[in-house]
Amino acid sequence: MSKKTVACTFALLGLAASLGLAQAEGTAPIKVESGTYKVEPGHTQVVFSLLHFGFTHYSGLFSDVSGTLTLNSAHPAASKLEVSIPVSSVQTTSDKLTAELKEADWFDAAKYPAATFVSTQVTPDGKGGATITGNFTLHGVTKPITLQAHYVGSGVNPMDKAYTVGFQATGVIKRSDYGVKTYVPMVGDDVALTIAGAFEKQK
After folding, report:
1. How many domains does one find in the chain?
2. 95: burial class by Cβ within 10 Å (0-12, 13-18, 19+)?
3. R_g over Cα of the chain
């Protein structure tokens, strides 16, 4: 179930493109350099949360994301994003559950090793955010998804000297739409996603 969250992570990347030209209400336009960016995997995370037996909202995350963002600050709607998330990167606070999520009853990481997202539309809201839509593939199923993205910041990373742009995105998916139905509805079908995406400009 958490795997879907992974997919959402890709959508978040798409948000980056649109945010590049976003303008926060009452402020100067956000200035982000146009160009080709690659996902910076060390600081990109896809966090998922779903209701567990009606008692708690249980969370986990995916990491090791890869992908490319073509950012057009002058015309953000022309920006493009393609992302891949390894299903086997799923992590929870339970070693037993983490291992179980990779097995055939859940994400079946051996058969479906990656979740992918390819953006189809970026719509800036003029207030520092954007709606990102795209095709998300998980567990062998491809469906459109929508994320709400927000620009966080950009500039030269003082550690590696790379020009970096960062975004935050949120969305909700149904894991059963992708054939991940174990324990539904006892364990929630709706999966809330929170994605932190970092991208480094390529020279």
Report:
1. 1
2. exposed
3. 17
CA distance 48 to 85: 13
Residues spanned by the domain of 197: 2-201
Pairing of strands 141-156, 129-138: antiparallel
Give the CATH number, domain containing residue 99.
2.40.128.110
Beta strand 66-71 pairing with 114-124 = unpaired
For residues 110 and 113, give the distance between their C-alpha atoms in angstroms, rounded to a whole number.
Answer: 6
CB distance 114 to 101 below 8 Å? no
Distance CA 177, CA 154 (A): 35
Instruction: Give per-residue pLDDT as tens, 171-202.
Output: 999 999 999 999 999 999 999 999 999 999 99
Sign of CA dihedral 4, 71, 163, 130: negative
Q: How far is CA 180 from the centre of its chain?
A: 18
- 2-47, pLDDT tens digit by residue? 444 433 443 343 343 334 434 444 444 567 899 999 999 999 999 9
What is the distance between the alpha carbons of residues 142 and 47, in angstroms, rounded to a whole number? 20
What is the three-class DSSP state of 33?
A: coil
